[in-house]
Write a structure and sequence with these properties.
Number of strands: 10
Order of helices and strands: HEEHHEHHHEEHHHEEHHEHEEHHHHHH
Structural class: mainly alpha
Helix content: 40-55%
Strand order of the largest sheet: 1-2
Shape: globular
Largest sheet: 2 strands, antiparallel
Distance between the termini: 45 Å
Length: 495
């Protein structure tokens, strides 16, 4: 059983990770980092993978990388028209400031980390695939369905952020591969992603055995998203259809983002976090903590008052986003905290940070009691990667763009009913007007969740919506310069 909070399992997998990560392929250094395992951690494939528990521990290690994805989702908001970078000053986390201003470059630290972490996930998944046939055991096929789902996840994040990327599927990269990597067309990467997800659909059960595990339904949902990104609308509509009606939308949209709402009836796939780890220290972040380090970024600077905890005031929603919600839309207050009103109503105090708008991301804001130990590293908030509202709006978009306006309106109106509590805002649109309504609805529904930038890019709206966006350049982010220096990769146009 997968248990992200099991201390014994955590110790085991930490030992395993140290031993298999003999090199970090994508570091901020100029070359590969050689790792010499200490005597206590000399565990290699020859004396590992001897029993099912070894495979289970290795699988936890692949899942573990999901917890390192904070910047993946932050840039999806900061690069969009939904939010400003914020922070303490114009130089606070310079990489995020550059992304906000569309001035990011190949030496951007945050973008380099995303590359590093996602390929670490690929490498761990490939290591398990490399050793798949060493022994047989009852749950093996299901376990490898999870492995293929996870590899698809990591490659999807890479291709949507960087475009054409290196693709390897036959084992791990080693130091000997330095200089041999090339970027392949994203169509080839998508083909592997689709294959992995179809394998996952075939192998995985419909019901999860433990919160956080991938299921066949999870793989259906991610494959639907992958099809949308490739403009395969009929395929997306077909793969998403079996999921309609399997989940429900809680009446209060804000409840979904409380700890009490985690893994609830709307959850399709959530990245699991816990506040129970010791936190280690900043030098071991994010590998050492099970907490959601991203949460502290969204908090109110210098806050004193009820309910919330202080944070660093990054990723602050814009006034324009706040005004985009219609009267009666419950999602506005669920998504955006109006700090001026809150402070007046609750005798709270706060400080204004850089690019202060008066608003904060209420979905992932630090709340009292949600963290402990090294506080800022250990918030227990899960990241909601795919929820049922996303399935419905993806299905609505896919049906709209493949000619089925009736289904598209039905799915859109299910989301609007939850937002308003009635049918007052049901859509009667058709054709391109309906498609645009669905796109606009995604902004309101997923504000603060990291989808906006990528939605604007894939729907061709980015240049009209994002200040400073340059067509032909900013659809993707730059390949990290360290990877170009080490592996002679080509750079994306304009960088």
């Amino acid at each position: 059983m997968l248990n992200f909070n099991n201390k014994k399992m955590k110790k085991t997998i930490n030992k395993f990770i140290l031993s298999i990560s003999l090199i970090f392929l994508f570091t901020g250094c100029d070359d590969y980092v050689d790792y010499e395992a200490s005597e206590n951690y000399q565990i290699v494939a020859d004396d590992y993978f001897k029993k099912p528990a070894d495979f289970e521990a290795a699988l936890v290690g692949v899942y573990d990388v999901l917890q390192w994805t904070l910047y993946n989702f932050m840039i999806g908001e900061i690069a969009s028209d939904n939010s400003l970078c914020g922070g303490e000053s114009a130089s606070d986390v310079l990489g995020l400031q550059q992304i906000d201003d569309m001035l990011h470059n190949p030496v951007n630290d945050q973008l380099s980390r995303i590359w590093q972490y996602m390929y670490e996930g690929v490498n761990r998944a490939n290591y398990m695939i490399e050793n798949k046939d060493l022994i047989d055991f009852p749950r093996k096929d299901e376990m490898y369905g999870e492995v293929h789902f996870l590899r698809a996840f990591f490659y999807f994040e890479l291709v949507k952020i960087y475009g054409d990327v290196p693709l390897f599927t036959n084992g791990r990269l080693t130091a000997g591969d330095s200089g041999t990597l090339t970027r392949v067309p994203k169509s080839e990467v998508y083909a592997v992603i689709e294959s992995d997800l179809n394998s996952a659909i075939s192998a995985l059960p419909a019901q999860k055995s433990t919160d956080g595990r991938a299921t066949s339904f999870t793989a259906h949902a991610l494959l639907g998203k992958v099809y949308l990104y490739q403009q395969k609308y009929a395929e997306a509509a077909n793969i998403l259809e079996p999921l309609v009606g399997l989940y429900t939308l809680p009446s209060d949209p804000g409840s979904v983002f409380l700890v009490s709402g985690e893994n609830g009836p709307e959850a399709v796939f959530e990245i699991q976090h816990s506040k129970e780890s010791n936190g280690w220290n900043w030098g071991w972040m994010p590998q050492s903590t099970e907490g959601n380090f991203g949460v502290i970024h969204h908090g109110i600077r210098g806050y004193s008052g009820p309910t919330y905890s202080s944070g660093w005031s990054f990723n602050v929603p814009t006034d324009e986003l706040h005004k985009a919600y219609m009267s009666g839309d419950k999602r506005r207050d669920a998504s955006i905290l109006d700090i001026v009103k809150w402070a007046d109503d609750n005798q709270a105090d706060y400080q204004e940070g850089y690019e202060h708008t008066g608003y904060f991301n209420n979905k992932y804001i630090p709340r009292q009691g949600y963290s402990k130990n090294t506080t800022e590293l250990n918030y227990e908030n899960n990241y909601r990667y795919i929820r049922y509202a996303d399935v419905l709006l993806m299905a609505a978009e896919a049906n709209s763009l493949s000619g089925n306006d009736v289904k598209a309106r039905d799915y859109l109106n299910l989301v609007r009913f939850r937002a308003y509590g009635n049918n007052s805002q049901d859509s009667s649109a058709s054709g391109s007007a309906l498609t645009q309504e669905i796109w606009d609805e995604r902004r309101l529904e997923f504000a603060g969740e990291g989808h906006r930038f990528f939605d604007l890019v894939r729907t061709g709206q980015a240049a009209d919506k994002i200040s400073g966006f340059v067509e032909g350049k900013h659809e993707v982010f730059p390949i990290p310069q360290t990877e170009i220096d080490v592996s002679n990769l080509t750079q994306n146009p304009g960088y």
